[in-house]
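Can't attach files on this board, so I'm pasting raw text. These are the components:
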Amino acid sequence: MIINFLKKVFLIDLLQGLSVTLKYQFTHKVTIQYPEKVKESRERFRGILRVYRDGEGKQLCIACKICQKACPEDCFDIEGQKNTEDNKMRPVKFDWKLYRCSFCGLCQEACPTDAIKLSKEFRMATRDKSKLFFTLDQMYSDYDLNKHFRGESKK
Amino acid sequence: MSNSLAADLIIPIIKIIIVGLFPLIMVMVMVWLERRVVAFIQLRLGPNRVGFQGILQPIVDAIKLFFKEDITHTGVDKVLFNISPVLVLFSSILAFCFIPLGGTMQIGTYNLNFWVAESPVGLLLIIGISSISVFGVIFGGWSSNSKYPLLGALRSVVQILSYEIPVAFSVLSIIFFSQSMNMIDIVNRQKDAGIWYGFMLPVSFVIFWISVVAETNRAPFDLPEAESELVAGFHTEYSGIKFAYFYMAEYAHMVLASSLAVVLFFGGWLPPFPNVAALSFLHVIPGFVWYLLKIMFFLYLFIWIRGTFPRYRFDELVRLAWKWLIPLSLLNILVIAFVRSFA
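---
Top answer:
Structure tokens for the assembled complex are below.
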């Protein structure tokens, strides 16, 4: 009773509140400074589709067009040709339409050789619709998307 | 001849310009500091892109506000609508004439005073002049011809009138000890007493500070501008540069309140322990710097309090003033008068 009264008189609860905010002023901030630092994506995040090569840099895609059939949005337009070197079908045309893609990941699941995967890249905003259309050499995983969308090669 | 012209005309004009600009510069600092400190409390970073750590942010904000469209909607009482932002800002800047920003500095044979005007009733004048801003608030709310500004203005008037009384009483306890209402004398008496009045009269200071936070319409007493209830209170209908005037006036009032707290309770331009010989090296730092350091602490306290406490309900606000602060300040003044006359 007396202690509570003294607490009120000396504004102890208010001072406690102030000490909490003082402490918070010097703790680590949660803000991520976006263009300089990019937050790491979640494990199952589905970003833009990329075509991958195997470890030795050899083409994985066999132009089987299963992804084209699996795609519910009709994003793909693939044409293949038999390669004389390894006697396998290889794509000569691999057109992919980002403006149709819904990032469902069915193409990735359907691919028998793991040649196409949805990457973690999420920065796909652009003012030019023609940049939402990708041809074969733009589909490879080492293609510079920063330059493609924003005209700068800074990563 | 030329010497006296400089002393009588040029130096006062320069002083007036500096004192006119000082609150506005502090306002710019405060706009930046408030956003940064509140952000830090909320674990954010706040504006840090424009200039080093965002210090140019207030300039950018001001340029944006000055170029925005100045809307005067229909049904507005034009004279009052246009005069109220000026009244609010002008009253707080005018009060700075009587605030000593530093001590007397001797340059050759000339004594440079760091204040514009010295008045035997300076304290009374400051309290009077700063009360003019209530008229700005109520004119602004009334002439807007809109219900939210009117409600905000009414709240603001009730609040400012209620909290003016404890401020006056706590200031009165200072006058008991200093026996002067001259701001310069009050500081000099604190030097003679060897102790700042804030440590001698802590109850007065706490009452003064709570009331002054309420009087400047700051959180947790920012009922007139409670955005969840009243959009933006009395300045809802203002835009562009007139809104900027209200905005600057709020911060200028905070600077004024901090200056009052420093001069009355914490020794103005005096360094800490002005009479201790071992600390006499502190006198090397000019008085203006000490004053600035102290008001920065109190301005920071304003922001800190805003970042900490939730807003009061209106009945709680009025009850705090009339049931707690006014009786307490009356009792306080009674005790002080008793001690002063018999001890």
